[in-house]
Amino acid sequence: xxxxxxxxxxxxxxxxxxxxxxxxxxxxxxxxxxxxxxxxxxxxxxxxxxxxxxxxxxxxxxxxxxxxxxxxxxxxxxxxxxxxxxxxxxxxxxxxxxxxxxxxxxxxxxxxxxxxxxxxxxxxxxxxxxxxxxxxxxxxxxxxxxxxxxxxxxxxxxxxxxxxxxxxxxxxxxxxxxxxxxxxxxxxxxxxxxxxxxxxxxxxxxxxxxxxxxxxxxxxxxxxxxxxxxxxxxxxxxxxxxxxxxxxxxxxxxxxxxxxxxxxxxxxxxxxxxxxxxxxxxxxxxxxxxxxxxxxxxxxxxxxxxxxxxxxxxxxxxxxxxxxxxxxxxxx
Amino acid sequence: xxxxxxxxxxxxxxxxxxxxxxxxxxxxxxxxxxxxxxxxxxxxxxxxxxxxxxxxxxxxxxxxxxxxxxxxxxxxxxxxxxxxxxxxxxxxxxxxxxxxxxxxxxxxxxxxxxxxxxxxxxxxxxxxxxxxxxxxxxxxxxxxxxxxxxxxxxxxxxxxxxxxxxxxxxxxxxxxxxxxxxxxxxxxxxxxxxxxxxxxxxxxx
Lengths: 332, 205
Description:
The structure holds 2 protein chains of 2 kinds.
Chain A (H helix, E strand, L loop, with lengths): L4 H5 L2 H5 L5 H12 L2 H20 L6 H12 L15 H13 L7 H12 L13 H10 L11 H9 L1 H4 L1 H4 L7 H22 L4 H18 L5 E6 L5 E7 L4 E7 L8 E9 L2 E7 L7 E8 L6 E8 L9 E6 L4
Antiparallel strand pairs in A: 1-2, 2-3, 3-6, 4-5, 4-7, 7-8
Chain B lengths: L20 H4 L3 H12 L3 H23 L2 H18 L10 H24 L8 H10 L5 H11 L3 H11 L5 H8 L3 H19 L3
Helix pairs in contact in B: 2-3, 3-4, 3-5, 4-5, 6-8, 7-10, 8-9, 8-10, 9-10
């Protein structure tokens, strides 16, 4: 592909319909960050695609409404993005960057949302490089990708820091998380939503189950709301995948798995924490429900632990069975 | 609960379904206002948002994913995203409906693509004709649907096929080019021209 300006711009239609795979998407979003008219075009096209969705309307099962409302009541909402004083350009970079990206529900992807910071500035009229005043240029530095930083007052450092929060999140990703952060955030939100739906469903049980569910919900909430919560995923070698949300501060993690094969007769899946603190059994996995196992709360996470999964025979857990999944959890 | 006037309709919940749809666009601003309440943790406002959008979110998820169970999951995930991130909705960037539908479509498409990656699933065969017919076939009398259908017929065949395969089929433009046996560059321009024409025909902006 020749990523010329014209060539890129014709991607607007495909982009507005999410018909652009990752590498193209990143290139186009970089283009968008520096092109006000393009953002305006995307906005209009998305009003049109929204009508395509409206035309496809179906009637959801009534019980989904209850489940969704209950689930929402258990989810903490993200705070709004606080708009910085327009005079403080550095502050603007901060609000346009990771704070926005933390939201998985970012409408138009990072570039467009970040672009808002630029268009909100009083000096920005068309958002074009040719017409941009100094305020706009500085604002752009906060939002533009590397390709656009040549003319930006803030220099590449500012630009890449804001446009690629994934880099600054490398600490939490620890290299095990593949793909760009927005995808991850989406995935994390998905996991969170599923967790919460599971718990909302559990609320229908008996009072005793309710108590249990509440305790577990609380334990899960403590992990999910921890400032250092980190999501890791791993393939299970015998099939399926596992997702771990962990907080070293809370010394706990939440484990879920999907698509695991039923264990052979007389055996079960056993979870282990292993590390400098020794090997500790972390519980047997319950049976899958609708293909999904967990969420299980595992307490007692220590620095340097890894979490491992083994297929074991009945009897007390023994840390000698071959591991079918191993995930290093790092240190505090 | 805010003390001021409350835009949420009192009384019994609005039934979800097509009988309400015709009035919906007149309520576009209402959805914007509801989101502001949702952002402040108003569960009743969220219920109203659910009732205004869940059917459309489910509809687009189903169109892209085909699988009813997965579509319902996506619908719930999207609505919970709306709850979680309502404070990040910015009316300057577009209507509330467009915001929610963009979330919905993006999430449905992400799911299709991650499945394809993991399972190396074969490209589902779907002719553009099928994708297009579904718009007309979808049964219940619905002004929106009628209008969208009419506007889709105003597109050239290639524009319409490109748009429906991408939006309803969840294909990338490169996949659409492959399916239609035409150049990638042609598909890109047809998608853009088609959407622009659709936008103008629908009178949205």
